[in-house]
Amino acid sequence: MTMSTTPALRASRYLAISPAVGRRAFRMVYSTRSARSALVSDEDWAQVQQGHCEALPEALRQSLLEHKILVPEGEDEQALVIAHNKAAIRDDDMLYLGISPSANCQLGCDYCGQQHENKRMDDEVMQGVMRRAEQKLARRQGYQHLQIGWFGAEPLLGLASIRSLTPRLQALAREHQLDYSAQMATNGVALTPKLFFELVEQHRVMAFDITLDGAREYHDRRRVTKDGRPSFDTILNNLRGIAADPRFAGCGASVFIRCNVDTRNHEGTLALVEVLREHDLLRHFRFYTAPVHSWGNDAHLGSLSQQRYAEFELELMARLIEAGQAPSLLPKALKPIVCMSVREEAELIDPYGEAFNCTEISQVPAYKEVRFYRLDDVRQPPAPVARPRPFADWNDRIQAGEVPCHSCRILPICGGKCPKHWTDGISPCPSIKHNIESRLTLEMVRLNRQGRLVNRSL
Amino acid sequence: IATLKEELATVELDQRFEMVIENFICSP
Prior knowledge:
By secondary structure, chain A is of the alpha/beta class. Chain A contains 14 helices and 15 strands. Chain A has helices at 42-49, 58-66, 77-90, 123-139, 159-175, 193-201, 216-222, 232-244, 269-278, 306-322, 394-399, 411-414, 419-423, 432-449, and strands spanning 9-11, 15-17, 26-31, 36-41, 70-72, 94-99, 145-150, 179-186, 205-211, 254-261, 286-291, 347-349, 354-356, 374-377, 454-455.
């Protein structure tokens, strides 16, 4: 009698499965452990569900195993996911530093949690930033990239500091043979085309995140200047000028247009998409929405519920596909490093010289007396050994079941989303947790429109 | 979505099977 050498297989616990579609029913099966998907006939998938993986054709079984849609019986998948996350943090080859060069902002958005004042990062703090970066590069081997995130308040109000720090940071990267790149979250008010190309070409800012909270009537209800003046037209004109410049197509920079959504503006999102289409901006920039969240305040109380936001987002994605756009439907990569706070040396340094392990603490009154997130004052002589970081044990906490991510099937593509929000008692679960099956359906629609499926009605 | 899903009513797999920013500042 010959014993089979094929290990017994079962369906992974980290799957999302679409409803059946098509003339002969088939489904899309997406593995959150591999961020890959397969189209499988209903007949074959029924074999998997009934525990008869051995009945599948060899080629199908091997492909599903390779993509982690099927896994060996007895495999401890959660332990492997957690181990993968920890290895990614240990082997991280990018030093990521957030820098807030200004404590001020032109706008007074009503959901912003920050308290602004007219303060720019001074020479003493900038020297501290450089000391800090040098120390980090000396303390931990294996870095290949230095990535700077210009953040705020509004970073462009600290432009002099950006112009002063960038050449020094670029020289430091060269000295350590690192790639250098930067990104910027800006309100876009001061981002003229001239300044945009200076930032890209001289300061290597290669990704920009700019907020428009709906069409003009929605945006200008809440993203207004401190003295109540509108900002929509200024930002839109800047975006139009950037897109119209012949240098943009080849410059390699990404521009993301973000729309923060809550109960007050979700109905204005489509109108914004229309405005962006009308000005041909969707061809150049990537549009996305995000739920308004707590920033040390009660802003999340005006947000849509997670379920309702997920439904809103699906409708928006469907509209974008119908309009010939390509919204991001499914993650194409895993998320083993959830955010800055779990990286061994990443931090945000604010204009006062304080270093935090999270971007959402500085200038937020609710956290003024909270020491948990503070790492150091960069103006002081550096300590020889880095102090223990909050959330360094984040993956252990997931594994121990301290947060619901422990048993969540999207853990590998989410990572736990936001350790700070869980700590604050607020669930930060992303929309994909609630709408992934419908996203799979939309992905099949897109494949069909690309001619990847066979249409028997033709 | 329901409207778009109707586009899939008549499609088939060509073979037996086929292998096919929100945290902007928190991550590189």
